[in-house]
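Protocol step 4 of 6: structure prediction from sequence.
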Amino acid sequence: MSQTRARIAVAIVHGIGQQGSNFADPLCSRLQDFLRPVCGGDVVFQSVYWSPIIKRRERELFQRVRRGGPLSFSLARGFLISYLGDAIAYQITPSDRRAYDLIHEVFADSLRALADEAGPDAPLCVIAHSLGSIIASNYLYDLQEEFHRPIVPDSVRARMGDTPLERGETLSLFYTLGSPLALWSLRYPDFGRPVEVPSPRLARYHPDLDGEWVNFYDKDDVVATPLKPLNDDYGRVVKEDRPLNVGTWLTRWNPFSHLSYWTNPALIERVAAGLIRTWKIANAYSGR
């Protein structure tokens, strides 16, 4: 009796700024050019589209501050609220963590959809840009910490199914693009402790997978930096800090390069190679 081939689950998390629900389409299309000839339809994509959680509040904020009278540089102010507002709103405060939890509920919904389509123990790849890499890191870290102490709020846990993928146990690949994790690490002593990649429990389901965390950054992107030098833990967990030159002739030499990772050919090829390798190993071990 033939067995079904193993599938790979890919969650794609966007970063700051105005995003549409189809933000991941260009990346998925280019990845599939590499993946289909080898993996067929065995790589399943799911967007983690969290932007609507915060955008309504940012629009309300902009409307309120404009009631106080005319403001100079209105377009620039709107841009600032749209981009910096995402990071500020996501922060937990002593009295309010609604945005944090609501965004993590969206993440839980996305992993549930992946588990339904790719399978409950499918190897999980997370591709995250900008603030999305913070959100992904926090969400996955919370899942790993949950095995030692209760940290995931009830509202998020209620959106999760009881599968290894949804519990983060099959996390195999983590690709961060233009990540501000180095800046975020300032909140912690010695710059904090990273999420473990691969998951410490991955071997229960895929003994031959070793996984990887590759951090892509452009030297002209003032938001992004290498991560391995942060401390010994980051040096151990992050497999590679890979420099790129992303964007067009208008953006590749300046901070606007931060918005241009999704379609960079070198990044696409490197991520596709990681997915293909993971698919081959998962299917070879399973005897499929």
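Step 5 (inspection) to follow. The chain has nine helices and six strands.
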